[in-house]
Write a structure and sequence with these properties.
binds calcium ion, about 10% helix, three-stranded antiparallel beta sheet, eight-stranded antiparallel β-barrel, 20 strands, Immunoglobulin-like, alpha+beta, globular
Length: about 375
């Protein structure tokens, strides 16, 4: 039985923010408050705890501390996907005129539908909220969280509060959720790793992915960090001392016409799905539209494309080379070399940079002749 409870008095912007973050980041702290129980690793027991009753007391006292021990329900005991029902909800920015409409119609959007398999790894997949316990970000795998290049979709699962949706997967403009209507809400990805927007849990209302909590995915490792905010449940951490959430890939999103370019990118750059195809070059700069997508360059600007812009040899010492190229902040880069311009000379990797937007490299080359190439690649490509 779930119990109605009021949202926590503390806000994400209060002076208690840092201390709240500290508590949530260390589950032991809250565990010690209840019967001196503690754990150092993820609990695997099958016990359940009446979290919402506990949370009610804590929330009314205006504290983010939770007095209960977070016990996650074993996966095989998960109930069926819920029908739409809402016990309680508070939208964090209800001053806006569309908010009440959003809350009402969102009831229709609460149940999972058919979705892509989760991108979350099977080794690191738990988030944690002091008031809600462990949150399984793989959901039931078939309906689990999907971290995409433009948007997130899929569902998280928490034994104490049920399913949490990251968005429908079909933003109105085909690119990003606008979070301004009942039919257009969800968590966006800005392409730099920052996750922003709103998730929805039928039992707990809106969950904000916003600047204070700074939820983010490391686009090299796939590790998520930061916190998200629920007015009813307080902070939920995506990584703490004993667990974190990690995505194995960044989903490119739907490609309705099958040309290898995601719909979102085509709509963002051309406003339609017909101008670009697998071989088109709209700006005539020699780089196909598909390659401009892969390098995140502007397909409508002939001066924007991936190319080597500078090479020098012998500046520091006779064998020292410097190579520079056009770089974008959303892409990783690697440099390869080989001694002959055409096969059978095979490309060998000189360096691959584990950070976004690298645009130059300096290195010694003792060979008499080398050819170099620069590759741009999308983060966490499946
Ligand atoms: Ca396409
Ligand atoms: Ca082009
Ligand atoms: Ca271009």
């Amino acid at each position: 039985m779930k119990t109605q409870f009021k949202p926590a008095a503390a806000s994400p912007r209060s002076a208690d923010f840092q201390s709240a973050v500290s508590r949530i980041s260390n589950p032991q702290v809250s565990c010690e408050l209840e019967g001196n129980r503690r754990f150092n690793t993820l609990p695997t027991g099958s016990r359940r705890y009446s979290r919402l009753e506990t949370c009610a007391t804590v929330a009314q006292a205006g504290s983010l501390l939770c007095r209960g021990l977070a016990i996650r329900q074993p996966l095989d005991a998960r109930p069926a996907l819920p029908t739409a029902s809402r016990q309680n909800s508070r939208f964090p920015i209800c001053a806006t005129s569309w908010c009440s409409v959003l809350l009402g119609l969102a009831l229709l959007l609460s149940g999972p539908g058919s979705r892509a398999a989760t991108t979350i790894t099977d080794t690191n997949h738990f988030a944690y909220g002091a008031n809600v316990g462990w949150i399984e970000c793989r959901g039931d795998v078939a309906n689990g969280a999907v971290i995409g290049e433009y948007i997130c979709t899929g569902y998280l699962w928490a034994a104490n509060v049920g399913w949490i949706s990251l968005g429908s997967g079909t933003p109105a403009n085909g690119i990003h959720y606008q979070n301004n209507s009942a039919s257009d809400w969800g968590v966006n990805h800005d392409g730099l790793g920052n996750l922003r927007g709103y998730a929805w849990g039928a039992n707990i209302g809106w969950i904000a992915f916003e600047t204070n909590g700074a939820p983010k995915v490391d686009l090299w490792t796939g590790k998520l960090s930061g916190l998200v905010w629920s007015a009813n449940c307080g902070w939920i951490s995506l990584s703490n001392a004993v667990a974190h959430v990690q995505t194995a890939s960044i989903a490119p999103g739907a490609d309705s016409d099958g040309d290898g370019i995601p719909d979102a990118w085509e709509l963002q750059n051309f406003g339609n799905l017909t101008t670009a195809n697998g071989s088109s070059d709209a700006d005539g700069d020699g780089q196909s539209d598909k390659n401009e997508y892969l390098a995140d360059t502007n397909p409508l600007d002939a001066s924007s494309n991936l190319r080597i812009t500078y090479f020098s040899r012998g500046t520091l010492r006779p064998t020292y080379n410097v190579l520079q190229w056009t770089a974008r902040p959303t892409r990783f880069y690697g440099v390869d070399y080989r001694s002959a311009l055409t096969p059978p000379g095979a490309w060998t990797n000189l360096v691959t940079f584990p950070w976004l937007g690298a645009g130059s490299v300096g290195f010694d080359d003792f060979g008499s002749q080398q050819f170099y190439r620069v590759r741009a690649f999308r983060p966490l490509t499946p």
